[in-house]
Amino acid sequence: MNLKILKQVKNLNTITTTYVCPCGNGYIEEEDDYTSGHRDKFVFLNCRQCEKEYFIDYGKSELKWKLNKYTDKNTKGGENSMNIIDSFMQVYMFELEKYLETRKEDLKNVSYQSDEANTDRPLKEFLKNLIETNFNSIPKHTVINSIRSEDDSEINISMLMKIKINRVLLPEEITEDIKKWIKESKNAIYTNPDLCLEIIDSEKIYYETIELKSTKKDAIPGSSIQQILPNEWVIFIKHAKNNISVTTGQYIHAVNSKMQFPDRSPRPQVSFQEMKKWNAQNRVLSYQSLIYKKDLEENTKYELIDDWQNVLAQRWIDILFNSKNIRSNEPWFNTTMRKFIILFLDKYDSLSISEKERFKKNINDLI
Question: Can you give the pTM of this predicted structure?
Fold first, then answer.
């Protein structure tokens, strides 16, 4: 589609080009960033009429785009299509965080039973009532016009405004049928969530689980590693004597990559500040578009969740080969590992070449 240029403005390292939209009642703004060592492009459709029919399609490029019509699913076609419910949750949780910040006095009056939300029944009941009564959809006054994912798929906010939260279920209210739906949709073992949102889009019903975390400090032990759903949504509340802070996001963005030596199943730490920091760097509201950026450091966290045994083993190797001195307050097992490796090497050195090969094969077969 050929678009008519209205104007073009150069400002230091950026060039902003404004085009006439297809209906002629709005405009499209293209911002090219030519900063040294950095090349980027952002395009925004500013027309309420055209937003219902068109979206900015980047395809697989970061610098080229075209204006395409929505498919029947109201999303971009192809492998990069955004899921409507995922998009709804990204906007809804962003707005819920802002709304909870206005309800700090109410949150202060909630009874927090422990440093984790697992036993915080009053918090669960408070949020259930608040969402069902006051915040069961994206607010009509939202400043967000569209949401863009990390693969540059884009959805107009109008496609999400019709979606409603019908109920908020407490753990004991989740039926066996709903548990089965959650297990199959998440492709994971089922564990009782703190809250479960029943979401209605037209006549279809979906379920999104919510994990609650509360702390007086910052970092706390997270869920058992086998139970972690990296993309599960979290409401994280930091409560001090005279102050309450709230942040929301997906579980993976709260993991701080720290893990205590496991006596049973390991529990990677989750951190309020880690999630807050991730949101500040990667969740951006720009030109009325909510943008979720790619996080290249996220792979480390996924490695921890996908193969925690390998991560822990690599840390032990690092301790054995790179620790020159005994640090104050270091974990008790560091010295145990040092004693073990001395005994192991003495035994291993006594083996013949063929015995070493057999030993290594036997160990690999047991993994």
Answer: 0.65
Rounded Cα–Cα distance for residues 99 and 88 (Å): 16
Using DSSP's 3-state secondary structure scheme, residue 273 falls into helix
Distance between CA 329 and CA 331 in Å, rounded?
6
CA distances from 260 to 112, 220, 266, 272 (A): 25, 11, 7, 18
Strand partners, 213: 236
Cβ-contact 213, 237 below 8 angstroms = yes
231 vs 251: CA distance, rounded Å: 6
DSSP letter at 116 equals S
Q: Cα–Cα distance between 94 and 98 in angstroms, integer?
A: 7
Convert the pLDDT of each residue in 233-292 to its tens digit: 999 999 877 889 999 999 888 887 665 555 555 677 889 999 999 999 999 998 888 988
CA–centroid distance for 292 within its chain: 9
Kind plus residue range of the DSSP H or E element containing 39: none
Is the distance from CB of 41 to CB of 57 less than 8 angstroms?
no
Max Cα distance, the chain (Å): 84
Distance (Å, rounded) from C-alpha 77 to C-alpha 55?
A: 11
Q: What is the per-residue pLDDT across 73-90, written as a single tens digit (0 to 9) for each?
A: 334 333 333 478 999 999
Which residue, 172, 173, 303, 197, is CA-closest to 248? 197
